[in-house]
Protein backbone atom coordinates (compact mmCIF):
# COMPACT_ATOMS: atom_id res chain seq x y z
CA UNK A 1 0.00 0.00 0.00
CA UNK A 2 1.22 3.52 -0.83
CA UNK A 3 0.51 6.89 0.73
CA UNK A 4 -1.42 7.76 -2.43
CA UNK A 5 -3.98 5.05 -1.61
CA UNK A 6 -4.71 6.39 1.87
CA UNK A 7 -6.86 9.31 0.73
CA UNK A 8 -4.42 12.16 1.38
CA UNK A 9 -4.49 15.32 -0.73
CA UNK A 10 -1.82 16.01 -3.30
CA UNK A 11 -0.42 18.90 -1.23
CA UNK A 12 0.06 16.58 1.74
CA UNK A 13 1.56 13.87 -0.47
CA UNK A 14 4.14 16.38 -1.69
CA UNK A 15 5.14 17.07 1.92
CA UNK A 16 5.34 13.32 2.61
CA UNK A 17 7.64 12.79 -0.37
CA UNK A 18 9.84 15.69 0.71
CA UNK A 19 10.21 13.97 4.09
CA UNK A 20 11.52 10.91 2.27
CA UNK A 21 8.68 8.58 3.31
CA UNK A 22 8.31 5.85 0.69
CA UNK A 23 5.49 3.71 2.09
CA UNK A 24 3.27 3.93 5.17
CA UNK A 25 3.99 1.95 8.31
CA UNK A 26 1.42 -0.44 9.79
CA UNK A 27 -0.01 2.12 12.21
CA UNK A 28 -0.20 4.73 9.43
CA UNK A 29 -2.02 2.35 7.09
CA UNK A 30 -4.61 1.62 9.77
CA UNK A 31 -5.12 5.04 11.34
CA UNK A 32 -4.92 7.55 8.46
CA UNK A 33 -7.91 6.25 6.43
CA UNK A 34 -10.00 5.93 9.61
CA UNK A 35 -9.32 9.53 10.58
CA UNK A 36 -9.95 10.84 7.08
CA UNK A 37 -13.22 9.03 6.42
CA UNK A 38 -14.73 7.89 9.72
CA UNK A 39 -16.04 9.52 12.84
CA UNK A 40 -15.24 6.98 15.59
CA UNK A 41 -12.60 7.63 18.21
CA UNK A 42 -9.38 5.60 18.06
CA UNK A 43 -6.92 3.97 20.43
CA UNK A 44 -3.71 3.23 18.55
CA UNK A 45 -1.33 0.72 20.07
CA UNK A 46 2.07 1.45 18.63
CA UNK A 47 5.49 2.02 20.12
CA UNK A 48 7.74 4.99 19.51
CA UNK A 49 9.56 4.71 16.19
CA UNK A 50 6.70 3.20 14.16
CA UNK A 51 5.52 6.48 12.66
CA UNK A 52 2.55 7.11 14.92
CA UNK A 53 3.08 10.89 14.95
CA UNK A 54 2.56 11.05 11.19
CA UNK A 55 -0.41 8.69 11.59
CA UNK A 56 -2.38 11.35 13.42
CA UNK A 57 -0.55 14.46 12.15
CA UNK A 58 -1.33 13.98 8.44
CA UNK A 59 -5.13 13.70 8.88
CA UNK A 60 -5.09 16.64 11.30
CA UNK A 61 -3.24 18.79 8.77
CA UNK A 62 -5.85 17.83 6.18
CA UNK A 63 -8.70 18.78 8.53
CA UNK A 64 -7.33 22.12 9.79
CA UNK A 65 -8.99 25.23 8.35
CA UNK A 66 -6.24 27.89 8.17
CA UNK A 67 -8.85 30.65 7.94
CA UNK A 68 -10.10 29.87 11.45
CA UNK A 69 -7.70 31.56 13.87
CA UNK A 70 -8.35 29.17 16.75
CA UNK A 71 -6.87 26.04 18.29
CA UNK A 72 -8.35 23.12 16.35
CA UNK A 73 -6.19 20.31 17.75
CA UNK A 74 -4.69 19.77 21.21
CA UNK A 75 -2.02 17.09 21.67
CA UNK A 76 -0.88 16.14 25.17
CA UNK A 77 2.48 14.44 25.78
CA UNK A 78 4.13 13.22 29.01
CA UNK A 79 7.43 15.08 28.58
CA UNK A 80 8.73 18.39 27.31
CA UNK A 81 11.10 16.72 24.87
CA UNK A 82 8.30 14.74 23.26
CA UNK A 83 6.13 17.86 22.98
CA UNK A 84 8.90 19.61 21.05
CA UNK A 85 9.50 16.61 18.81
CA UNK A 86 5.83 16.13 17.98
CA UNK A 87 5.47 19.84 17.18
CA UNK A 88 8.55 19.74 14.93
CA UNK A 89 7.27 16.63 13.14
CA UNK A 90 3.90 18.24 12.41
CA UNK A 91 5.64 21.35 11.09
CA UNK A 92 7.74 19.22 8.76
CA UNK A 93 4.61 17.53 7.37
CA UNK A 94 2.42 20.59 6.78
CA UNK A 95 4.13 21.49 3.51
CA UNK A 96 2.93 24.86 2.22
CA UNK A 97 -0.34 24.78 4.13
CA UNK A 98 -0.49 27.62 6.65
CA UNK A 99 -1.00 25.47 9.73
CA UNK A 100 0.53 27.07 12.80
CA UNK A 101 1.87 24.68 15.44
CA UNK A 102 3.22 25.62 18.85
CA UNK A 103 4.58 23.64 21.80
CA UNK A 104 3.84 24.73 25.39
CA UNK A 105 5.60 23.14 28.34
CA UNK A 106 7.03 23.92 31.75
CA UNK A 107 10.59 24.97 32.44
CA UNK A 108 10.37 27.89 29.97
CA UNK A 109 9.15 31.48 30.47
CA UNK A 110 5.42 31.64 29.95
CA UNK A 111 5.44 35.11 28.33
CA UNK A 112 6.60 34.04 24.84
CA UNK A 113 4.10 31.17 24.94
CA UNK A 114 1.26 33.57 25.75
CA UNK A 115 2.24 35.88 22.88
CA UNK A 116 2.43 32.96 20.44
CA UNK A 117 -1.03 31.75 21.47
CA UNK A 118 -2.44 35.27 21.13
CA UNK A 119 -1.12 35.52 17.55
CA UNK A 120 -3.16 32.47 16.61
CA UNK A 121 -2.20 28.79 16.69
CA UNK A 122 -4.05 25.91 15.03
CA UNK A 123 -2.32 23.01 16.79
CA UNK A 124 -1.08 23.11 20.37
CA UNK A 125 1.26 20.40 21.62
CA UNK A 126 2.03 20.43 25.30
CA UNK A 127 2.52 18.82 28.66
CA UNK A 128 -0.64 18.60 30.80
CA UNK A 129 0.56 20.90 33.58
CA UNK A 130 1.52 23.83 31.34
CA UNK A 131 -1.56 23.42 29.12
CA UNK A 132 -3.78 23.56 32.19
CA UNK A 133 -1.86 26.61 33.42
CA UNK A 134 -2.64 28.45 30.17
CA UNK A 135 -6.30 27.47 30.37
CA UNK A 136 -6.60 28.84 33.90
CA UNK A 137 -4.84 32.06 32.88
CA UNK A 138 -7.29 32.48 30.02
CA UNK A 139 -4.52 32.39 27.42
CA UNK A 140 -5.60 29.09 25.83
CA UNK A 141 -9.12 28.57 24.50
CA UNK A 142 -10.03 25.00 23.49
CA UNK A 143 -13.66 25.67 22.54
CA UNK A 144 -12.94 25.15 18.81
CA UNK A 145 -10.96 21.90 19.17
CA UNK A 146 -11.75 19.18 16.62
CA UNK A 147 -9.09 16.71 17.77
CA UNK A 148 -8.08 15.78 21.33
CA UNK A 149 -5.00 13.53 21.31
CA UNK A 150 -3.11 11.75 24.07
CA UNK A 151 0.34 10.66 22.93
CA UNK A 152 2.17 8.07 25.07
CA UNK A 153 -1.08 7.72 27.04
CA UNK A 154 0.17 4.83 29.17
CA UNK A 155 3.16 6.83 30.38
CA UNK A 156 1.02 9.86 31.18
CA UNK A 157 -1.18 7.71 33.40
CA UNK A 158 1.93 6.20 35.03
CA UNK A 159 3.20 9.70 35.76
CA UNK A 160 -0.03 10.72 37.50
CA UNK A 161 -1.40 13.16 34.91
CA UNK A 162 -4.94 11.78 34.97
CA UNK A 163 -6.46 14.71 36.93
CA UNK A 164 -4.87 17.29 34.62
CA UNK A 165 -5.97 15.37 31.54
CA UNK A 166 -9.56 15.25 32.77
CA UNK A 167 -9.54 18.97 33.59
CA UNK A 168 -8.27 19.80 30.09
CA UNK A 169 -10.79 17.44 28.49
CA UNK A 170 -13.65 19.30 30.17
CA UNK A 171 -12.54 22.50 28.41
CA UNK A 172 -13.04 20.99 24.95
CA UNK A 173 -16.33 20.82 23.01
CA UNK A 174 -18.50 17.73 23.23
CA UNK A 175 -18.24 17.04 19.50
CA UNK A 176 -14.65 16.17 18.61
CA UNK A 177 -12.42 13.22 17.73
CA UNK A 178 -10.58 11.65 20.65
CA UNK A 179 -7.38 9.73 19.88
CA UNK A 180 -5.09 7.89 22.29
CA UNK A 181 -1.75 6.40 21.29
CA UNK A 182 0.04 3.99 23.57
CA UNK A 183 2.81 1.42 23.27
CA UNK A 184 0.99 -0.85 25.72
CA UNK A 185 -2.66 -1.35 26.61
CA UNK A 186 -3.06 -1.49 30.40
CA UNK A 187 -6.60 -1.60 31.88
CA UNK A 188 -6.36 2.08 32.82
CA UNK A 189 -6.32 3.04 29.13
CA UNK A 190 -9.60 1.25 28.46
CA UNK A 191 -11.17 2.73 31.59
CA UNK A 192 -10.22 6.18 30.31
CA UNK A 193 -11.70 5.31 26.91
CA UNK A 194 -15.00 4.19 28.42
CA UNK A 195 -15.23 7.46 30.32
CA UNK A 196 -14.32 9.95 27.60
CA UNK A 197 -14.72 8.30 24.23
CA UNK A 198 -17.85 7.59 22.27
CA UNK A 199 -17.77 4.57 19.97
CA UNK A 200 -14.10 3.78 19.66
CA UNK A 201 -11.88 1.36 17.84
CA UNK A 202 -8.62 -0.18 18.98
CA UNK A 203 -6.00 -0.36 16.25
CA UNK A 204 -3.43 -2.70 17.69
CA UNK A 205 -0.36 -4.56 16.56
CA UNK A 206 0.02 -8.15 17.71
CA UNK A 207 2.07 -8.81 20.83
CA UNK A 208 5.05 -10.11 18.92
CA UNK A 209 5.21 -6.80 17.05
CA UNK A 210 5.48 -4.70 20.20
CA UNK A 211 9.26 -5.00 20.14
CA UNK A 212 11.19 -4.18 16.97
CA UNK A 213 12.16 -7.29 15.04
CA UNK A 214 15.48 -5.67 14.16
CA UNK A 215 16.70 -5.57 17.78
CA UNK A 216 19.14 -8.26 18.91
CA UNK A 217 18.52 -8.74 22.64
CA UNK A 218 20.98 -10.14 25.18
CA UNK A 219 21.42 -10.14 28.95
CA UNK A 220 24.51 -10.11 31.14
CA UNK A 221 24.48 -11.34 34.73
CA UNK A 222 26.77 -9.07 36.70
CA UNK A 223 27.37 -7.76 40.24
CA UNK A 224 27.51 -3.98 40.93
CA UNK A 225 31.30 -3.82 41.20
CA UNK A 226 31.62 -5.13 37.65
CA UNK A 227 28.86 -3.13 35.95
CA UNK A 228 31.03 -0.19 34.88
CA UNK A 229 33.75 -2.51 33.60
CA UNK A 230 31.16 -4.49 31.66
CA UNK A 231 29.65 -1.32 30.21
CA UNK A 232 33.07 -0.20 29.02
CA UNK A 233 33.53 -3.58 27.31
CA UNK A 234 30.30 -2.98 25.43
CA UNK A 235 31.26 0.57 24.48
CA UNK A 236 34.72 -0.49 23.30
CA UNK A 237 33.48 -3.59 21.50
CA UNK A 238 30.68 -1.84 19.63
CA UNK A 239 33.09 0.01 17.40
CA UNK A 240 30.71 2.90 16.67
CA UNK A 241 28.51 3.02 19.77
CA UNK A 242 25.67 5.53 19.58
CA UNK A 243 23.02 4.86 22.14
CA UNK A 244 21.25 5.25 25.47
CA UNK A 245 22.23 3.73 28.81
CA UNK A 246 19.16 3.50 31.05
CA UNK A 247 19.58 3.90 34.80
CA UNK A 248 17.06 3.57 37.62
CA UNK A 249 17.71 6.92 39.33
CA UNK A 250 18.71 10.50 38.53
CA UNK A 251 21.71 10.22 40.84
CA UNK A 252 22.95 7.15 39.01
CA UNK A 253 22.79 8.95 35.65
CA UNK A 254 24.96 11.76 37.00
CA UNK A 255 27.50 9.49 38.64
CA UNK A 256 27.76 7.07 35.72
CA UNK A 257 28.06 9.77 33.05
CA UNK A 258 30.83 11.44 35.08
CA UNK A 259 32.73 8.15 35.40
CA UNK A 260 32.42 7.58 31.65
CA UNK A 261 33.63 11.08 30.83
CA UNK A 262 36.64 10.64 33.11
CA UNK A 263 37.40 7.42 31.24
CA UNK A 264 37.40 9.29 27.94
CA UNK A 265 33.92 8.53 26.59
CA UNK A 266 31.62 11.11 25.02
CA UNK A 267 28.81 10.78 27.59
CA UNK A 268 26.20 13.05 29.17
CA UNK A 269 23.37 12.58 31.65
CA UNK A 270 19.72 13.36 30.99
CA UNK A 271 17.37 13.44 33.96
CA UNK A 272 14.43 15.32 35.44
CA UNK A 273 16.57 17.41 37.81
CA UNK A 274 18.05 19.34 34.90
CA UNK A 275 16.58 22.64 33.75
CA UNK A 276 14.63 22.55 30.52
CA UNK A 277 17.29 24.58 28.73
CA UNK A 278 19.99 22.14 29.87
CA UNK A 279 17.89 19.16 28.81
CA UNK A 280 17.33 20.64 25.36
CA UNK A 281 21.04 21.35 24.92
CA UNK A 282 21.93 17.82 26.02
CA UNK A 283 19.39 16.27 23.71
CA UNK A 284 20.54 18.44 20.79
CA UNK A 285 24.16 17.37 21.31
CA UNK A 286 23.08 13.73 21.39
CA UNK A 287 20.82 14.03 18.34
CA UNK A 288 23.61 15.70 16.36
CA UNK A 289 26.04 12.97 17.57
CA UNK A 290 28.31 15.36 19.39
CA UNK A 291 27.50 13.12 22.37
CA UNK A 292 27.63 9.38 21.68
CA UNK A 293 26.42 8.00 25.03
CA UNK A 294 23.27 9.35 26.67
CA UNK A 295 22.85 8.16 30.28
CA UNK A 296 19.19 8.64 31.14
CA UNK A 297 16.24 7.71 33.30
CA UNK A 298 13.06 6.28 31.79
CA UNK A 299 11.09 9.48 32.25
CA UNK A 300 13.77 11.77 30.80
CA UNK A 301 14.25 9.59 27.72
CA UNK A 302 10.56 9.01 27.12
CA UNK A 303 9.66 9.80 23.53
CA UNK A 304 13.15 10.73 22.36
CA UNK A 305 13.00 10.41 18.60
CA UNK A 306 16.47 9.65 17.23
CA UNK A 307 16.59 7.39 14.21
CA UNK A 308 20.20 6.15 14.18
CA UNK A 309 20.57 4.77 17.71
CA UNK A 310 22.31 1.39 17.41
CA UNK A 311 22.57 0.40 21.08
CA UNK A 312 20.43 0.43 24.20
CA UNK A 313 21.93 -0.71 27.49
CA UNK A 314 19.68 -1.42 30.46
CA UNK A 315 22.18 -0.65 33.20
CA UNK A 316 19.37 -1.48 35.63
CA UNK A 317 16.69 -4.07 34.87
CA UNK A 318 13.34 -2.34 34.20
CA UNK A 319 10.50 -3.19 36.56
CA UNK A 320 7.93 -4.12 33.90
CA UNK A 321 7.68 -5.53 30.40
CA UNK A 322 6.14 -2.22 29.32
CA UNK A 323 9.23 -0.32 30.47
CA UNK A 324 11.45 -2.85 28.71
CA UNK A 325 9.52 -2.38 25.45
CA UNK A 326 9.75 1.40 25.69
CA UNK A 327 13.49 1.31 26.38
CA UNK A 328 14.62 -1.01 23.62
CA UNK A 329 12.21 0.63 21.19
CA UNK A 330 14.76 3.43 20.90
CA UNK A 331 16.87 1.25 18.59
CA UNK A 332 16.15 -1.05 15.66
CA UNK A 333 13.96 1.59 14.02
CA UNK A 334 12.94 2.25 10.44
CA UNK A 335 14.46 -1.00 9.20
CA UNK A 336 17.86 -0.47 10.85
CA UNK A 337 19.39 -3.11 13.11
CA UNK A 338 19.99 -2.42 16.77
CA UNK A 339 21.18 -4.17 19.89
CA UNK A 340 19.82 -4.17 23.44
CA UNK A 341 21.95 -5.35 26.36
CA UNK A 342 20.37 -5.83 29.79
CA UNK A 343 22.33 -6.13 33.03
CA UNK A 344 20.78 -8.36 35.68
CA UNK A 345 21.82 -9.06 39.24
CA UNK A 346 22.09 -12.60 40.60
CA UNK A 347 18.53 -13.46 41.58
CA UNK A 348 16.91 -11.31 38.86
CA UNK A 349 16.76 -13.93 36.13
CA UNK A 350 13.23 -14.96 37.07
CA UNK A 351 12.01 -11.39 36.61
CA UNK A 352 13.91 -11.08 33.33
CA UNK A 353 12.28 -14.27 32.09
CA UNK A 354 8.83 -12.97 32.99
CA UNK A 355 9.52 -9.70 31.18
CA UNK A 356 10.61 -11.64 28.09
CA UNK A 357 7.51 -13.86 28.19
CA UNK A 358 5.16 -10.91 28.64
CA UNK A 359 6.77 -8.91 25.84
CA UNK A 360 6.93 -12.02 23.64
CA UNK A 361 10.65 -11.74 22.96
CA UNK A 362 13.79 -13.83 23.23
CA UNK A 363 16.62 -12.43 25.34
CA UNK A 364 19.76 -14.54 24.98
CA UNK A 365 22.66 -14.82 27.41
CA UNK A 366 25.57 -12.70 26.19
CA UNK A 367 29.01 -14.09 25.53
CA UNK A 368 30.29 -11.27 27.76
CA UNK A 369 28.69 -12.88 30.80
CA UNK A 370 31.15 -13.97 33.47
CA UNK A 371 30.88 -16.79 35.94
CA UNK A 372 29.89 -15.59 39.41
CA UNK A 373 31.29 -17.57 42.37
CA UNK A 374 28.62 -19.52 44.22
CA UNK A 375 29.04 -17.75 47.57
CA UNK A 376 28.52 -14.32 46.00
CA UNK A 377 25.61 -15.54 43.90
CA UNK A 378 23.79 -16.82 46.99
CA UNK A 379 24.45 -13.60 48.87
CA UNK A 380 23.11 -11.39 46.08
CA UNK A 381 20.11 -13.63 45.51
CA UNK A 382 19.13 -13.23 49.17
CA UNK A 383 19.64 -9.47 48.94
CA UNK A 384 17.49 -9.30 45.81
CA UNK A 385 14.73 -11.34 47.42
CA UNK A 386 14.67 -9.06 50.48
CA UNK A 387 14.52 -5.90 48.38
CA UNK A 388 12.04 -6.96 45.73
CA UNK A 389 10.30 -10.21 46.48
CA UNK A 390 8.00 -11.49 43.73
CA UNK A 391 6.45 -9.07 41.25
CA UNK A 392 3.67 -9.69 38.77
CA UNK A 393 2.98 -8.13 35.40
CA UNK A 394 -0.02 -7.83 33.15
CA UNK A 395 -0.12 -9.22 29.65
CA UNK A 396 -1.84 -7.31 26.88
CA UNK A 397 -3.79 -8.56 23.92
CA UNK A 398 -2.76 -7.72 20.39
CA UNK A 399 -6.20 -7.95 18.77
CA UNK A 400 -8.03 -5.05 17.12
CA UNK A 401 -11.64 -4.55 18.14
CA UNK A 402 -14.33 -1.87 18.18
CA UNK A 403 -16.04 -0.75 21.36
CA UNK A 404 -19.04 1.31 22.40
CA UNK A 405 -19.13 3.89 25.16
CA UNK A 406 -19.88 1.22 27.74
CA UNK A 407 -16.68 -0.59 26.80
CA UNK A 408 -18.45 -3.65 25.46
CA UNK A 409 -17.12 -5.16 22.28
CA UNK A 410 -19.12 -4.43 19.19
CA UNK A 411 -19.23 -6.84 16.32
CA UNK A 412 -16.27 -7.07 14.40
CA UNK A 413 0.29 0.91 41.28
CA UNK A 414 3.36 1.70 39.83
CA UNK A 415 6.20 -0.33 41.28
CA UNK A 416 8.94 1.51 43.07
CA UNK A 417 12.54 0.90 42.12
CA UNK A 418 15.27 0.48 44.68
CA UNK A 419 18.99 0.74 44.09
CA UNK A 420 21.22 -2.12 45.10
CA UNK A 421 24.16 -1.47 47.35
CA UNK A 422 27.52 -2.69 46.13
CA UNK A 423 28.65 -3.35 49.67
CA UNK A 424 29.36 -7.00 49.01
CA UNK A 425 31.15 -6.32 45.77
CA UNK A 426 34.27 -4.87 47.38
CA UNK A 427 35.22 -8.44 48.34
CA UNK A 428 34.56 -9.66 44.82
CA UNK A 429 37.73 -10.12 42.77
CA UNK A 430 38.22 -11.21 39.15
From TrEMBL:
Read off the Pfam families from this record. Answer: DEAD (PF00270), Helicase_C (PF00271)
Listed InterPro entries = DEAD/DEAH_box_helicase_dom, DEAD/DEAH_RhlB, DEAD_box_RNA_helicases, Helicase_ATP-bd, Helicase_C-like, P-loop_NTPase, RNA-helicase_DEAD-box_CS, RNA_helicase_DEAD_Q_motif
Query: What Gene Ontology terms describe what this protein does at the molecular function level?
Result: ATP binding; catalytic activity, acting on DNA; hydrolase activity; RNA binding; RNA helicase activity
Chain spans, region Disordered: 379-430
Keyword vocabulary terms for this entry: ATP-binding, Helicase, Hydrolase, Nucleotide-binding
Q: Which PROSITE patterns match?
A: DEAD_ATP_HELICASE, HELICASE_ATP_BIND_1, HELICASE_CTER, Q_MOTIF
Domain spans labelled Helicase C-terminal? 230-380
Taking every annotated instance into account, which residue ranges of this chain make up the domain DEAD-box RNA helicase Q? Answer: 1-29
Lineage top rank: taxon: Archaea
Q: Which residues form the Helicase ATP-binding domain?
A: 33-203
Locus of motif Q motif: 1-29
Q: Where is the composition biased (Low complexity)?
A: 390-401
Q: Does the keyword S-adenosyl-L-methionine apply?
A: no
Q: Quote the EC number.
A: 3.6.4.13
Q: Which family would the database say this protein is a member of?
A: Belongs to the DEAD box helicase family.
What is the recorded name of this protein? RNA helicase
Q: Which organism is it from?
A: Thermococcus celericrescens
